[in-house]
Specification:
The complex is a heterotrimer.
Chain A lengths: L6 H20 L4 H17 L1 H4 L4 H34 L8 E6 L5 H13 L3 E7 L2 E6 L2 H10 L1 H10 L3
Antiparallel strand pairs in A: 1-3, 2-3
Chain B lengths: L3 H28 L3 H25 L4 H26 L6
Chain C lengths: L1 H25 L3 H30 L5 H30 L13
Helix pairs in contact in C: 1-2, 2-3
Classes of the chains: A mainly alpha, B mainly alpha, C mainly alpha.
Chain lengths: ~170, ~100, ~110
């Protein structure tokens, strides 16, 4: 069974994350609350161990580290996107020219696709409409952001670097 | 030490301004042509309500409101997802 | 100094929330409206909560765990808001809502 590979490890990781979450959210450290936390985290870990930890365990750490390096660039893009939208909203003539574009990527894994889709939604002038087998449908608010995505492809390159899928 | 009254006033003003933005969104939620505009406006109102809850928690100094804000964020997200799925397929349970 | 930082964060956040609301009213159709709300609301909410977090760090420094709670809130909004926008977009596109083109009537 492929699904049961490393089941104990996945239950353990889920349990630790859930218990840490419990401690941070409750903030009370007496015996009653700690016991309740252990029991609840254990139940959650046994039921839903296959949701949190997916994929091979040896690559997960490296990917998380690379994701941390990707986040500052993404935050800067979000600020740019907001200034762009604010300009388009507050300009008296509303310089918009919406269009729908399609393009292909080489990404395949779910996490990479989700990261790219959320990044496209948060960066200037574009929103993801649909994804199927690495093909993206994107709604762009004007001509320049659409071309930045289809011609340039900086973001696809960066996400591919993060998840090591070239 | 900065006096606490100053921040109380700032929190009150920010909360009132956010309430005004919610009022603007309510126009779209009531008028907005088509059901999708209504759902989008309701989602936006929910997002702004999260901030309003955190502000209320600081204004009245009740930390309980932060937990309510977290829960409200999750419920708002799930509600929007379920509504989008219902509008797309006509029922909620199918995969 | 502290009050300046907090007030700047709060003012920027409220400004972006206002831009999102005005975009929701002004833009001509559903898809472009989601452009305004999906981006501006995410950053606006995050900025207001960041300002309150700085306020908390200086004023109620005896309960640092609440800061973690607020950070979780920001992280959750950064993940969930684009996803909800995407779900609405996909549902509208699949049911055949036509996007607005330059020169069309407002909808």
């Amino acid at each position: 069974m492929i699904e049961n590979e490393g089941k104990g490890f996945r239950i353990l990781v889920t349990f630790c994350v859930m218990f840490l979450f419990w401690l941070l959210l409750s903030g009370i450290f007496d015996a009653l609350h700690l016991t309740a936390g252990v029991i609840c985290s254990l139940i959650v870990a046994v039921i839903s161990y296959d949701l949190l930890v997916v994929g091979k365990r040896n690559k997960t750490l490296v990917r998380s580290f690379r994701l941390l390096l990707y986040i500052p660039w993404e935050l800067w893009q979000i600020v740019l996107a907001n200034i762009d939208v604010a300009y388009r909203v507050l300009h008296p003539k509303m310089p918009i020219d919406p269009r729908i574009i399609e393009f292909d990527t080489s990404l395949r894994s779910d996490f990479a696709l989700v990261t790219l889709a959320n990044s496209i939604t948060l960066t200037p002038g574009t929103i993801t409409i649909g994804v199927r087998d690495g093909r993206f449908w994107v709604h762009a608010v004007a001509k320049e952001p659409a071309e930045a995505l289809t011609v340039d492809g900086t973001m696809q390159q960066k996400v591919a670097d993060v998840y090591m899928e070239w | 030490m900065i006096e606490i009254e100053f921040f109380q006033t700032v929190l009150l003003v920010v909360g009132l301004l956010i309430a005004v933005t919610i009022l603007l969104c309510i126009y779209r939620a009531v008028v907005g042509p088509g059901v999708f505009n209504v759902v989008a406006a309701v989602n936006v109102i929910g997002t702004k309500t999260i901030v309003l809850l955190v502000l209320i928690g600081y204004y009245f100094e009740r930390p309980m409101f932060f937990d309510i804000a977290l829960l409200y964020a999750m419920l708002n997200f799930i509600g929007t997802l379920v509504f989008a799925k219902y509008l797309e397929r006509g029922d909620v349970c199918s995969r | 100094m502290l009050e300046v930082i907090v007030v700047v964060f709060l003012a920027l956040g409220v400004f972006f929330l206002f831009v999102g609301a005005i975009g929701l009213l002004r833009f001509p159709d559903f898809y472009t409206r989601l452009h305004a709300t999906g981006k501006c609301d995410t950053l606006g909410v995050a900025l207001v909560i960041l300002g309150l977090l700085v306020y908390h760090l200086f004023y109620y420094s005896d309960t640092p765990l609440v800061c973690v709670k607020l950070l979780f809130l920001i992280l959750f909004i950064f993940i969930s808001n684009p996803t909800a926008t995407y779900a609405l977009m996909k549902a509208a596109y699949r049911t055949g809502l036509k996007p607005w083109k330059l020169g069309d009537e407002r909808r």
